[in-house]
Write a structure and sequence with these properties.
489 residues, nine-stranded mixed β-sheet, 9 strands, globular, Lipase_GDXG_HIS_AS, Acetyl esterase
Amino acid sequence: MPNSTVLSINTLLNKAVRSLKLTALAQEKPESARDSSLNSHELENLQTLPIKNAEFIISTDDKPLSIKDKALYYNLITSYQPHLLHYAMKGIGCLPESVLESLVGYLDGPTAKQYEHVDAHLRLILAVNSKLKTPLHLVDMVELRKRFAADVVAMQAPTVWQQPSSTLFSSIKPFTKKDGPTVEWEDKTIANADDGDMTIRCYQKQANTAGFSFKKKSKYNPDETVMLFFHGGGFCIGDVDTHHEFCHAVCEQTGWPVVSVDYRLAPEYPAPTALRDCIAAYGWLAENCQAFGALPSRIVLAGDSAGGGLSTMVAQQVITPTAEAWQDLGINGQKTFEILQRMPSPMAQMPLYPVTDVENDYPSWELYGEGLLLDHADVAVFDAACLENSPLPRQHILTSPMLGNNSQICPTYIVAAELDVLRDEAFAYAKQLEHYGVAVETYTVYGAPHGFIHFMSVHQGLGQETHHIINNFASFVREIISTQDLLAA
């Protein structure tokens, strides 16, 4: 990765730790798979991270490793801490409530009276964000992507970056780590909407096996279902790394394979490029779902924020493609329309705090447009990046989900965040689907800001909510499967 002027919060934390010589902070057992597959966003952090004490990690009393330890931890030991931000944010939450409240007050953060469902830990996070936040500008978008990715990855739990062991001994029960990772993932390259390269990250859960076996562990997918996930970030930032933790959690909790899409971003690629790329990914998955142990009729969609909007538009256009809308894009649009007509319909979708209406203002726009993680100024910059150079008019079916035909949309589980400028858009979309008689459930996370899934491993309450949402959607989907099975019997 080339040198960058971006200083992420995690980088600054590591510089502080190094200067204070706190090199034993957050020592853990070696994360062998994580070390051998560091992604590009972590390379920035590695230049400034503290070196761990190798003797401390290998043995605290200079005793030789057992055969079992050698089998489990044979890889090189890491020398760095790329997730210091995770430990710092999680550790702050362990401080006494009075201390947290004092820190919030010192930073002029929101009070419990302002946000009655928000605890002091989260209000402190919001206060720090408010102090560190700088105005967004289109010209800084590349740097913003780097900083956003570095910090979001640094907030994620290190355990989600551990691949299940692939050693000779890993299939033998006595040499298997207790509570070790069961989700494996790999990046693949497929064609985007213009036949260029596009990365997807594919997650699969390993089946538990008993006894001695040298065979590779089989995959686990009892529901024969696969999720296609679209990351958020205002159509301008974010990637498969920034949403790795959430996709990993979905796979771990449900057993479903998850395919996360690294679609092209604005302003370099304005609307509807992201939508076209996501449709291309859907087409690829429909043709290759058997490799994941899934049926073409059991593809479920999900995404957060901008990705939630993409989920709603993919579902809409796959189920009821609009010929006139695609004709506005000329030959490329006609090509996409023809492909859409051959695709199987998705079984269900889960948009999280989605973008559904690019034009109308709702009460939440005024209530929560300032001082939170997503504000008016952010929306304006993302909006300009995505739409100003688009070949489509601002008010168009392919840029605003609620303008299209949602009368036949698949069953939908909508997640809204209480403290979100986009909250009422989610409610309006749910109301429209209810009007059409679509099976829809809406779940509101009280006390949560926009983008709350990024805090799932550093804030206890938001972690519990995210876990609950995943389980609820799994139950929602399994009920659909049961109903379909009964009707087919």
